[in-house]
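Issue: ligand-bound run for zinc ion - logging full I/O for the record.

Environment: standard queue, default settings, no custom constraints.

Inputs:
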Amino acid sequence: MDSRSAQGRVHRLAFDVDWPPGHVACYVVDGPEPILVDAATPDCEAAFRDRLADLDLEPGDVEHVLVTHPHVDHIGQVPTVLAEGDPTVHAPAGVRERFARDPDDLAARVRRNCVAAGFPDDQRETAVEMAVDSLERDAALLEPDRVDAWLAAGERATVGGLAVEPVHVPGHQADHLSYRTEIDGETALLAGDMGIEPFRPVVLHDGLDDGHREAFDAFDDALDRLAALDVDRVYPGHGPVHDDLAGVVERDRRSLADRLDGVRDLVADGRATVPGVAMALAGDRDVKYLIPETMSALAHLERTDAVTAGTVDGVRRYEV
Ligand SMILES: [Zn+2]
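Outputs:
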């Protein structure tokens, strides 16, 4: 018996990244047909090979790739695996439509939302560029033509002999699926960026595209679905493997509610626009990642009548 089977079928492969919590994890579910769950960052190929070698595997030995969501730190090594083998690639069905979108239309929507938010011209164009660049970069890493199976919530699938049940968990990313399955005699959740233990994932959903208006509700729906799962063990993309899905879900609920309360308080204090609120929330952190969450929070508060909004000189201004 080799050391692999001695420690169970799931192996956590962690790679350094320069944002909290300092690493991203993907997983190998070992067996006759090794399954790679998510695929790290584009710039960690050497480390990725080393981690696989620790398991006596090479990229070409991966028989199946299972993707939770198309963020760069979860699909970065898909090309490495595809270049050396012929794995079956499974990804969320929503990603197919997202990647098929016209980049010019995306740019137009993001620009319109940024104009309404009142960003200065240079920041607005940076945001538009970032949206188009990420779409193109992510679609190049997870090429739609190379995806064999587009998975949909509620439609059970078999991945390398593993029966998986995809659960739609938007909010962090609109198409995100977590996968419930049975491994090593336990109910497991291959969770991606939901159900992570160190902190609530940021509300990015579809960034500054039109879906930002529903992002908080979508996140809530995701937490309801996770709360309904009976899961022994969670394998997340950041932070440790853990067994407290219910606790993490409750923490995330409180965190979302606190965020909405905090944004409302800032509006009450006279922060009247998306950039004004986002800057106040960010403090000395990089405001970039808080802008979609702020825009989403204000849209949610407006829709639920917790704040009122009006347009002055083309810019949406909020008050309590
Ligand atoms: Zn992510």
